[in-house]
């Protein structure tokens, strides 16, 4: 609730205006029955054309005024809600952008979609209570006073009867909503199935099985049909009841009023007006009922938003980003615990497997088990707590944002956000430009495309840009689904190169690329990263052949180091791992199904 | 990209009439019941008017009591009638929607692949999700609401005409401004709301993808970039919402100000008639109350029209899929031979720029041919021609002497299977994912097929073949999914296989293992493997090197190495 209150406090005047207009509108609703009753009594019954004209004119004017108030209420409240939505989205966005690698582990992506897609909206809906909600209470009171002046007995009946009816019907509607949500869920499942079929059309075209899928879909569609019939049965009853219950109540009130009119306690015009007031009262009562439901739902939603905002990054040792420049760049915030990073490029050492990466070298690491390679990259890039040292300083002791700025781990499945190809490639550069005073060394605007083209060339990805309709400016969707696997991989490589980190750690950068291209990339990569530390985790002989030194990682330890050629000669395990030609066959595993090959 | 067709107005209208026509009795029942319910609903204000008259004439309490009971009775009758009307209408809607979506899927499954690819699967995906469910809501909820409200309106105005024809005419006074405002609004509303929906979806997508790519955001320090990007999205949502709000501002102001107009007119004219003794006081009051009652159904119609309009547009897109001519059944019967022959094949995609420049190739039955070459050389295009997905612009691709595109599609798929690096795991169990390729396969065969492609992960599955895969259940990684696709192929057992980078998603070691295991299972089959790893080429009977849409080298691995061309130099660098 404190969160909702914060959303209100951010826009006090707008909320106040909403309250005033909302109240005026609600009260205005009861004006028309009154005017009509006066027109009947003073004009029609009294056969007074002038009075009739006067009251009819009043009806038209009041109608115009009411429609003005109504739209002002709607506008103000829409702005209140939109303001809240934008604010919630903004804080959420900041949090999501800042939290980092921990997020996917702590939270399913579906959860973020729920919070972003509906919880923000539900929370904003709560604010509706501040406008028409307040108005509804006041309107209810005003109508009570007016009715009381007509007849206290009638007033009592109406004032208690309308809320009672709302309380009866409310739960019925909730039940309907539940039945509907079951249906909608099933419908969603069916829609997913349809999407599944569409996505798999090419597979079905390649292998067959279309008839089976059509039949399976039809069976599920019939299940949904049966569920729809069930919902329809509930729905139609509830709908009929929501018509019948207020109708019967209205009949009772009219009956009571008519008997009073017969007895001469009230006039015929007043009798007609009572009829109108009952109808009018329904609006504020419904508002309150719906509003209270909205508040319940909004509280749950707000709690989920808060839970997301309270997530903190993983502790990977040392000072947390909050301590150093995360929240406000206070220079003194650096804890004594923080060790300063090596001023100059330095050696990296991982005691866990015994790997040393000399400064400025191109080091290849061939791992028997791909999972070991990823674990090594996580240690070197400090995504986990480890004993890795950098120039003799424990990596864990260095401020995390310094590590991130200077050491880049380029995962082979690193994420590609939607944007133009240029945006995707220059991602880090663009964000560095945004950082005050940090963009000095970077070529701007005109020169930038030149660098992008150079990076694309190194990654042998010029053809990716060339094949797109407007080259670098072509928008590409999330995860670059329109590109082929090999193209995506080369774009990722180009992006990592453009970031120009001091230490670049590449995981399987060419696994989806053909041999011709891989050979080109290996050569150009070496030239482009000359003098800067680069670690390539791969088993491709083309890449490893270009490394200064190669390490063979087996069962958690570095078992051999040397050049590619040396290792090929000395380390049989290495030879089997990387040699993809016939000599692997010549060795021990010639038996088994492979024997059938040649 | 040529988009999928959209049905024109006439076709949509025809189809709608057809939907009604197929369920004529249900529609009739619904209309009769709704009509009866609306008439019962009219009785209440009329009885109220009678009460007013009776009270004004000095009636006794007994009369009032009798009339009040009558009002109560009418309300109950109306409720009962409308319940059964609703229910019948609902059932009709459900049936119609079910028929539509099943038809849509049937048509979609019958689409030629080349059409789907050219249109982009995004368009089709939108039609299958957004459009089908929009049509569903329209048929199920919107159309009944509008039909009921229209019936109520017609009866209400009819009743006023019955009270006095002049009162009826006067009551129509408020309609012209409402009509004008609606037209103005509807012409703009759909696109504005679609833009709003798109902007909202984009914002959600930005938040979700930022969360999904959180590690990348941290690694590349994209925090500020993501915030800038997201803030733009938030601003766009705000702008689009303002746009729709502006439309509503005009529309609702005019409409709501118009509602009291007919009431005022009826009172005024009624007063005049009353003074002439042409109508009773009760009749004028009843007319005013009818008009008061008419506001609600009118409001409902206006609110739902925009949705109905959108439903109409979606319906047109759903029907459009059915207008694509389905895959031709094929002219030729099963060819006798299995020899694949390509003669002078040229091919160009839409822009008229040739991707293949005269390919000549012959693949013997049982031969294993590897195709290598740099990306963009036309390897995948050749694979598509061989599989019969596209026909060459010039030249011929034939199997057993019969052009592959002339074969019946089902027959062709049984004989020639194409597996690409695009794999898809269908929602369902492992068995579901395998069975469609070979409906008669036993569980043992399926397990054997998984073992044959080296899918070790199968052993870890909790429920074996019954383990549910995909969305919300167990997610297979790219490598596992690719092995599943290969296992499917083993089960389908075609005599000719085209593997287009079919193991690209596997890590090199696993890829090697899988390929070999697969090769063992597929002995005797014709295999054309497009590969970026040279070991595949090394294992093959012959290697074709493609460059710039031409086959530049063709021969066995050893021959090509001896010939000392491009292949040989590549092999040496690979092999050093």
Automatic annotation (TrEMBL), chain B:
Its main location: membrane. One of its GO terms (cellular component) is plasma membrane. The chain crosses the membrane at residues 26-47, 67-85, 142-163, 169-186, 250-274. Residues 340-573 form the ABC transporter domain. The keyword Oxidoreductase does not apply. Pfam families: ABC_membrane (PF00664), ABC_tran (PF00005). It comes from the Bacteria. One of its GO terms (molecular function) is ABC-type oligopeptide transporter activity. Coiled coil: none annotated. CDD domains: ABC_6TM_exporters. Keywords: ATP-binding, Cell inner membrane, Cell membrane, Membrane, Nucleotide-binding, Transmembrane, Transmembrane helix, Transport. It is a multi-pass membrane protein. It is found in: Cell membrane. Residues 28-310 form the ABC transmembrane type-1 domain. The keyword 4Fe-4S does not apply. This is Multidrug ABC transporter ATP-binding protein.
């Amino acid at each position: 609730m404190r969160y909702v209150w914060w959303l209100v406090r951010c826009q006090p005047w707008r909320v106040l205006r909403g309250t005033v207009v909302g109240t005026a509108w609600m009260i205005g609703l009861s004006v028309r029955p009154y005017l009509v009753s006066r027109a009947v009594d003073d004009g029609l019954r009294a056969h007074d054309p002038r009075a009739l004209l006067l009251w009819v004119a009043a009806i038209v004017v009041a109608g115009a005024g009411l429609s003005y108030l109504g739209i002002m209420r709607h506008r103000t409240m829409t702005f209140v809600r939109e303001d809240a939505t934008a604010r919630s989205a903004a804080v959420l966005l900041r949090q999501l952008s800042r939290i980092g690698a921990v997020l996917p582990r702590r939270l399913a992506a579906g959860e973020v979609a729920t919070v972003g897609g509906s919880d923000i909206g539900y929370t904003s809906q709560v604010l509706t209570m501040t406008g028409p909600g307040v108005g509804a209470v006041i309107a209810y009171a005003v109508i009570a006073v007016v009715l009381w002046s007509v007849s206290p007995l009638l007033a009592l009946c109406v004032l208690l009867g309308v809320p009672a009816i709302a309380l009866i019907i409310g739960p019925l509607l909730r039940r309907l909503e539940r039945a509907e949500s079951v249906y909608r869920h099933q419908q969603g499942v069916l829609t997913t199935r349809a999407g599944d079929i569409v996505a798999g059309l090419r597979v079905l075209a390649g292998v067959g099985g279309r008839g089976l899928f059509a039949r399976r879909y039809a069976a599920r569609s019939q299940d949904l049909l049966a569920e729809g019939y069930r919902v329809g049965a509930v729905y139609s009853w509830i709908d009929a009841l929501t018509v019948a219950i207020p109708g019967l109540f209205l009949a009772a009130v009219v009956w009571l009023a008519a008997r009073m009119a017969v007895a001469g306690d009230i006039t015929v015009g007043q009798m007609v007006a009572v009829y109108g007031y009952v109808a009018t009262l329904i609006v504020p009562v419904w508002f309150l009922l719906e509003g209270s439901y909205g508040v319940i739902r909004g509280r749950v939603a707000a709690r989920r938003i808060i839970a997301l905002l309270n997530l903190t990054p993983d502790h990977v040792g040392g000072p947390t980003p909050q301590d150093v420049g995360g929240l406000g760049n206070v220079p003194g915030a650096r804890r004594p615990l923080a060790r300063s990073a090596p001023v100059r490029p330095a050696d990296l050492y991982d005691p866990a497997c015994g790997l040393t990466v000399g400064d400025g070298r191109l080091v290849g690491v061939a791992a028997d088990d791909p999972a070991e390679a990823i674990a090594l990259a996580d240690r070197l890039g400090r995504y986990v707590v480890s004993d890795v040292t950098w120039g003799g300083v424990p990596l864990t002791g260095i401020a995390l944002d310094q590590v991130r700025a200077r050491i880049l781990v380029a995962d082979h499945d690193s994420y590609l956000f939607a944007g133009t190809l240029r945006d995707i490639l220059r991602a880090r550069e663009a964000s560095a430009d945004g950082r005050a005073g940090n963009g000095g060394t970077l070529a701007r605007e005109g020169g930038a495309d030149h660098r992008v083209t150079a990076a694309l060339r190194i990654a042998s990805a010029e053809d990716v840009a060339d094949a797109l309709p407007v080259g670098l400016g072509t928008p590409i969707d999330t995860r670059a689904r329109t590109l082929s696997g090999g193209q995506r991989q080369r774009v990722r490589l180009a992006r990592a190169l453009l970031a120009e980190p001091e230490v670049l750690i590449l995981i399987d950068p060419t696994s989806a690329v053909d041999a011709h291209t891989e050979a080109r990339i290996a050569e150009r990569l070496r030239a482009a990263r000359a003098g800067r530390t680069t670690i390539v985790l791969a088993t491709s002989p083309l890449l490893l052949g270009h490394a200064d030194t190669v390490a063979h990682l087996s069962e958690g330890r570095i078992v051999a180091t040397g050049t590619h050629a040396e290792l090929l000669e000395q380390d049989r395990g290495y030879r089997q791992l990387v040699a993809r030609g016939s000599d692997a066959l010549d060795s021990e595993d010639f038996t088994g199904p492979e024997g059938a090959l040649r | 990209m040529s988009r999928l067709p959209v049905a024109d107005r006439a076709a949509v209208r025809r189809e709608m009439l057809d939907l009604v026509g197929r369920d004529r009795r249900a529609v009739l029942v619904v209309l009769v019941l709704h009509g009866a319910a609306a008439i019962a609903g009219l009785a209440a204000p009329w009885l109220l008017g009678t009460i007013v008259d009776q009270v004004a004439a000095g009636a006794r309490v007994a009369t009032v009591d009798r009339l009040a009971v009558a009002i109560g009775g009418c309300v109950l009758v109306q409720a009962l009638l409308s319940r059964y009307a609703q229910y019948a209408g609902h059932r009709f809607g459900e049936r119609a929607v079910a028929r539509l979506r099943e038809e849509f899927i049937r048509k979609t499954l019958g689409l030629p692949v080349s059409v789907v690819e050219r249109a982009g699967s995004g368009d089709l995906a939108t039609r299958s999700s957004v459009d089908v469910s929009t049509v569903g809501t329209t048929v199920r909820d919107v159309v009944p609401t509008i039909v009921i409200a229209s019936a109520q309106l017609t009866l209400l105005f009819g009743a006023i005409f019955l009270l006095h024809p002049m009162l009826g005419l006067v009551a129509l006074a408020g309609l012209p401004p409402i009509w004008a405002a609606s037209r103005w609004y509807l012409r703009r509303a759909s696109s504005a709301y679609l833009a709003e929906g798109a902007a909202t979806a984009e914002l959600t997508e930005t938040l979700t993808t930022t969360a999904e790519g959180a590690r990348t955001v941290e690694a590349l320090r994209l925090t500020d970039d993501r915030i800038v990007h997201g803030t733009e999205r938030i601003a766009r949502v705000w702008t689009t919402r303002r746009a729709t709000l502006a439309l509503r501002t005009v529309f609702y102001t005019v409409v709501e100000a118009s509602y009291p107009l007919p009431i005022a007119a009826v009172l005024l004219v009624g007063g005049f008639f009353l003074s002439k003794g042409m109508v009773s006081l009760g009749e004028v009051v009843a007319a005013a109350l009818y008009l008061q009652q008419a506001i609600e159904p009118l409001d409902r119609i206006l609110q739902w029209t925009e949705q109905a309009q959108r439903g109409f547009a979606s319906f047109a897109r759903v029907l459009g899929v059915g207008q694509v001519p389905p895959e031709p059944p094929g002219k030729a019967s099963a060819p006798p031979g299995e020899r694949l022959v390509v003669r002078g094949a040229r091919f160009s995609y839409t822009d008229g720029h040739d991707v293949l420049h005269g390919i000549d190739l012959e693949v013997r039955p049982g031969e294993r041919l590897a195709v290598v070459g740099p990306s963009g050389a036309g390897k995948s295009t050749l694979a598509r021609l061989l599989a019969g997905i596209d026909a060459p612009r010039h030249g011929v691709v034939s199997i057993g002497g019969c052009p592959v595109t002339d074969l019946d599609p089902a027959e062709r798929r049984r004989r020639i299977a194409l597996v690409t690096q695009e794999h898809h795991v269908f929602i369902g169990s492992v068995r579901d994912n395998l069975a469609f390729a070979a409906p008669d396969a036993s569980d043992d065969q399926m397990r054997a097929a998984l073992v044959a492609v080296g899918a070790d992960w199968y052993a870890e599955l909790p429920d074996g073949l019954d383990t549910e895969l995909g969305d919300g259940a167990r997610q297979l990684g790219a490598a596992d999914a690719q092995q599943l696709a290969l296992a499917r192929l083993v089960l389908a057992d075609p005599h000719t296989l085209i593997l287009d980078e079919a193991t690209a998603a596997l890590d090199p070691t696993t890829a090697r293992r899988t390929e070999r295991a697969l090769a063992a299972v597929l002995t005797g089959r014709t295999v054309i493997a497009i590969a970026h790893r040279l070991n595949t080429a090394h294992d093959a009977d012959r290697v074709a090197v493609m460059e710039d849409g031409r086959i530049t080298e063709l021969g066995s691995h050893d021959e090509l190495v001896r010939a000392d061309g491009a292949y040989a130099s590549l092999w040496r660098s690979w092999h050093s």
